[in-house]
Specification:
The complex is a heterotetramer of chains A (about 575), B (about 190), C (about 350) and D (about 190). In chain B, about 70% of the residues lie in helices and about 0% in strands. Chain B has about 190 residues and is an all-alpha fold. Chain B has one domain (about 1-190). In chain B, helix 3 runs antiparallel to helix 7 (about 130-160). Chain B is globular, with a radius of gyration of 17 Å. Chain C has a single domain, classed as Orthogonal Bundle (Ammonium transporter fold). Chain C is built from 17 helices and no strands. The longest helix of chain C is centred in the N-terminal third of the chain and has 23 residues, at about 15-35. Classes of the chains: A alpha/beta (about 575), B mainly alpha (about 190), C mainly alpha (about 350), D mainly alpha (about 190). Chain B: It is a multi-pass membrane protein.
Chain lengths: ~575, ~190, ~350, ~190
Amino acid sequence: MLMNLFKFKGGVKPPTNKTQSLGKPIAQAPIPSRLVVPLHQSIGGTPRPVVQAGDKVLKGQLIGEADGWISAAVHAPTSGTVVEVAMHVQPHPSGLDALCVVIEPDGKDEWIPREPVNYKALTPEQVRERLQQAGVVGLGGAVFPTHGKLTASKTVPMEEMVINGAECEPFITCDDLLMRERAEEVVRGIGIFRDLLQPKRVLIGIEDNKPEAAAAMRAAVQAVGENFEVIPVPTLYPAGGAKQLIRVLTGKEVPAAKRSTDLGVQCFNVATAYTAWRAITHGEPVVSRLVTVTGNVHEPRNYEVLIGTPMDELLKLATPHPDTDGIIMGGPMMGFLVPQPDVPVVKATNCLIAHSDRLFPPKAPEMPCIRCGSCAQACPHELQPFEMYWFSRAKNFGKTQEYHIFDCIECGCCSFVCPSRIPLVQYFRFAKSEIWAREREKNAADQAKERFEFKQLREEREKAEKAEKLAKAAAAQAAKKAAEAAAAAAAGDTAATSPQAADAPAIDAEKAARQAAIQAAMERAKAQREAAQPKNTDNLTPDQQQAAAEIEARRAAARLAVPEAPANEKSE
Amino acid sequence: MSHYLFILVGAVLVNNVVLVKILGLCPFMGVSKKLETAYGMGAATTFVLTMATGASYIIDHYLLIPFGLEYLRTLSFIVTIAAIVQLTEMVIAKTSPTLQQTLGIYLPLITTNCAVLGVPLLNIANGHNFVESLLFGAGSAVGFSLVLILFAGIRERIEGADVPVHFRGAAIAMVTAGLMALAFMGFAGLDKYQ
Amino acid sequence: MFAPAPFLLKDTSVSQVMTQVCIALVPGIAAYAWLVGPAILVQLVIASLAALLAEAAMLRLRKKPLALFLSDGSAIVTAWLIALTFPPLAPWWLVATGTIFAIIVAKHLYGGLGQNPFNPAMVAFGVCIVSFPALMSQWPSVGLQLPLVDQVNVILGLAPRIDALSSATPLDALKTALKLDEGAFDVTHLLANQDIYGNFAGRGWEWVAVGYLLGGLWMWQRKLITWHVPVAFTGALVAVSGALWLYNPAHFASPLFHLLSGGAMLGAFFIATDPVSGCTTPRGKLIFGAGAGLLAYIIRVFGGYPDGVAFAVLLMNLCAPVIDLLTQPRIFGMKDAGKGGKA
Amino acid sequence: MDILLAIAIMALGAVVLGAALGYASIKFKVEGDPLVDKIEAILPQTQCGQCGYPGCKPYAEAIAKGEAEINLCPPGGMEGVQRLADLLGREVKPLDAEEKPKQVAIIDENTCIGCTLCIQACPVDAIIGAAKQLHVIIGPQCTGCELCLPPCPVECIHMEPIAENIDNWKWKYPVVELKAAPMREAA
């Protein structure tokens, strides 16, 4: 294949360690004793649980409903009973809890009725919605809801679609095996994306250390009769980063502040294409994924694993060595040690590496930076990590942003080459999350300011209204008196002067009108007084209303529980 | 021509007003924490100093000397400088309130910046003519701004350094200024080259 | 305990880097010891001891782990550079004072390794040449046959500093000669004196410079330094000296003379390339190197000191932070180079 | 005679310079104070009044005028002081109060009598409810200013620190490990 490849600057060549797990075909991991399915498995809104403890669920049944457009549904990975919907520790570096649906499998693995669809008969909107309903997210690790990436930019024509089969991280082989064994379905899935985005070219980038996968994909492309180009790219970490692969295949550079569609290019992982195909044409939502289990184990291998499988159960299949002291989720460059071994496999879990000091020797102590510039030469985004480190360390976050810290993709190349053993990426993550926290605080402050100013405005207005009301009342009082006096005078005069008598009804009418006006004013004032009572129940968002309703409900419950509570008094 | 060049180079580098003559240390230490402020201070001082040398030359030669009032030199120079500084402050207040706030007290204190008074007096002591005075003033001002900006650049970097606690802040700044002065000694003799 | 990614690391360390710098200095040192005199080896030991002592004392005072930082080799590199720039028969206390000043004031007051804005070795040189100009200008004439024991005695102050020791460097000698003779001799004539000026830039010294050049090229080949600073430094030096040489060959020495005399080669490859006190952006490095080369020439030819490399490097150290700020490279996804908020 | 001449010349100078300055003061007149906005942007907008000024804006104005210290804002914390110091080129001073973690107010549903006093006290309208009905605090909008605590007649409001969750979790500062301690990971 003759094609001009581009290069990205920087990059490193860590030992790949991929052969260990390539020896055997993909195996089906057995159904575990318990599945803990986190609801929040993609970027975007947290899905709302739609099952309760005790519910019977079937494989593929919806258990979490997408919340908003950028959010993806979550499904039961197998049939069984919902044990609880509760907080569990997440496979997340924080080690914090999040809402999970815990399912006890019944072992039958019984599917919901699956309806195969010919997607060509559907409109693009329908396809996107189906993908969302099926919980299809980017399986390369970023877990961005796929349907959200399938809309072309309105202004820029879609030129290239890049399919990421590079898999540059050491140890990980799940995409490699997927392409070897299920190439045809991957290619068909790519076809769906192609039909939605209508790019001029489809480029499948595969690192040149996976010739088998590339051959399989080429054969599949031929077999399906597509015109996708399978392109081997030089093995260089992080060639599998979306932006790097786009650069290598198309020469386009996507900056941090832009979407790739703005440049007429979009990138998908091969595994995403595969799940999209299964979801659309087989009606199977994403309930499992391929996971490489490797590292400090006897039998490294790739498994098809149900989402929610506890990691330690999965690791046992590969029989870890006794000195294993932790599990890395993801690759050795960007992964993290999971907080506890029984956290569940999620859609982002592409690899589990059994950690041991033998495999990953403990790091030498951190030395001060000597500004040698190795990191800047290794950085695929051409940043200057040593400067960002200098200011992150000093907590001078404004400066870190001047050095473009948000363009950092946290690939770890800088830490890899650092002679001072500085955990650079760690400093950048720290700085980024501090900046985000500040942003949140700033937003909260702006909102608070707005609300404060609104309240002040309202109070001003109420004060003005009150003053006006008082003035009106005083005026009314005076008018009334004047009217009474006038009436008395009129009554006295009626007898005396008959011509004026004709005026009397007029005066009476006038008086009546005035009184009516006063009455009305008083009514209004009363109404206003009532309105001025700090009620503050208007203009509530559904969330707030819901919160209030919940509190009311709890209150009702509390009242039931405590009958002697002064319920009557309140219920008036 | 080369005579003027030597005056200029001499004022900027060889006899740098801050690092060699040790004049104007107050703003040099005070407003060099941030590069941005240093740019502002440099610009303001350059303006004031150049204006002051010109104005003071005119005052000296056309008012004080003809009337034999040389003893009023210091007084009249200070008054002139104060007026120019006041003018500068108004302009800065109009154009950049943040700069005004960050320069803070140092902006009006340009009045008492010994470099600003020292340079006109040195002009007279050296018997410079008007063009020479202006060149010497501008050169000194550029020299002041140059070292102020470079110093601010270094201080911004030192900010993140693991300086021993007792040396943080002014102490390490003084050490740095000293080492800068050492570096500037390298220019010694350049203005005397034949 | 939390261990952050990446879990794989390249096999490299600060002490490895520093050791390689020391190895790269060896050809120059060998030539120095062979052609100029073995006393330099004694000076290297004195400077290293002083550096390690000062380093240890400061680390102890600052409550930092001694073994870790003493073994990083940075103090040794500083010490060696000091020893190599001082006159080889300078009294021991001068070398020790310079080294201790460099380690304490120029390095540790700023936080130690990696945080000093000025090159410590050049600070030592600057401080000593300003404070002890006479001692710092006494260079032994090359070819002087003085037994090593006597040389050591001179260094240790046990023997008198005889006149034969107090000649000048070829560079200084040329400058003085040109000044004194008021144009009676021209440069070519002066340089013909091979006893002082050797084949092209100073007897003995020219080969020491070639040794540094070899070491520097090796460092470049090992990717310890990039080409920018040495190329810009030598380029600027050649350009300015060449221009003036062409303009008046009777009054100005050739570029070759300037390249191989004084501290030009040591400066270009070992001192100006120090990443801590120098520039780090590619364009910044070019400006830094060119500036240092230019200033070195101006100071050594027109200024009041025998050589200008030390002051040139210190002056460029001053400018380095600002140069770096003004020469920020383009980042991935950005159209043009330059600073500016988010692209 | 000399002295008169001197006085005359100095007076002339004074008049000329005075005229120039007077003209400049009209020409470069500054309206308003844009600095206040910048200061206010740094303040946390809790409107809590702990600084002794009735809200964030008055405090910002006081700072801009140089009447107030920059270390009076406890919700802003040391970080806020630092940023104000940076903006204004003033010295950093230790906070004039104790720094507290961010909090939100919670109304005890069983004790609340629905008196609306807290609603009136809340500077940001973060409490909803009507007379004789239970009040609820809208968590995300509560600034933690504690102004609702004193008016409550039954003391049914208390402050709770905001819990850490996956969304607001922050990466920690990497520990600078200078001692040659073995770094072991526990699983």
